[in-house]
């Protein structure tokens, strides 16, 4: 039987229980229900020194996040909108992923990444979601087809943790399903690696030769 896919959720703000963190927890709960092995980096876990390319080794919080990402088949990012974009706290944590450049799967290579952005209005939520997806592309990850923008002026979370807007709740569940499905497919692809991967450059070369 195939081992459970690993999904790490990263995000929220330094305030434990922020709206973005609550949304992130919904996605992770659904991923766990679908059989994933999930972990969470949120709140104080995000507070890391400013990323310094000269630093020889990451400090403990960055190291924990990097180990979780390196071992993950899928990632979920959740960000509040701060002045229309991803707050420095979260962007700094993501900048530490530079340390994975020489990894076997560099940066976010081969991982589906579900993105959620929360603003106190639609404009900030949507621009922040687009930025998150751009960052994922830059880190060589695969943003899931569906991303979620949540307007905290019109939606929140119940005491049991669900989103009180059923449409957003369904979207969060769908993002979880897309991350898990891609994670399982990519893991199977890696297991069949020598043949499957070798076929890609060959067909690309054939296309370029036309
Ligand atoms: C410094 C700061 C800047 C913010 N800028 C925006 C913004 O540009 N657009 C927006 O919709 N909401 C903005 N907000 C509101 C947050 O996005 C919103 O309150 C948050 O996502 C909800 O999370 P919370 O539960 O931590 O408050 C800002 C909040 C802070 C603290």
UniProtKB/TrEMBL annotation:
Keyword line: Oxidoreductase
UniProt key word Acetylation: no
Secretion signal span: none
Stored InterPro entries: Flavoprotein-like_sf, FMN_Rdtase-like_dom, NAD(P)H-dep_reductase
Oxidoreductase keyword on record: yes
SUPFAM superfamilies recorded: Flavoproteins (SSF52218)
Domain NADPH-dependent FMN reductase-like span(s) in chain numbering: 5-153
GO molecular function, one term: oxidoreductase activity
Pfam families: FMN_red
Enzyme Commission (EC) number: 1.-.-.-
Superkingdom of origin organism: Bacteria
Protein name as it appears in the record: NAD(P)H-dependent oxidoreductase
Source organism of the structure: Streptomyces durocortorensis
